[in-house]
# Entry
Amino acid sequence: MTIISLNITTTPVELSGELTRHSIMQITKESIKALFLPSSTTLDLAQITRIDTAGLAWLFYLLEQANIEGCQLSFVNIPTKLDKLIRLSGVEGFLPVQ
# Structure
């Protein structure tokens, strides 16, 4: 079982572990909704150890949900592997990075 952890009690919110098609299913809708309670949220990705295209798509899903909830979502500490995946996918500039 792949482990992913979303710590919504920290600022910025920490996401750690593997962000893959297997792990994103472990994150509950309640946890996602709690991300958007404040008017802006920053998600720290420094502790992501692995990411695949499903993980990248999930980050875009979070952006969409944040927009629906009226929350401004941004990301910090983008891992090198994610940066490479973003460039390979041709979506540079679409993730709001601080």
In short: The chain has one domain: 4-89. The longest strand covers residues 40-51. The two ends are 32 Å apart (CA to CA). Helices lie at 29-35, 53-69, 80-89.
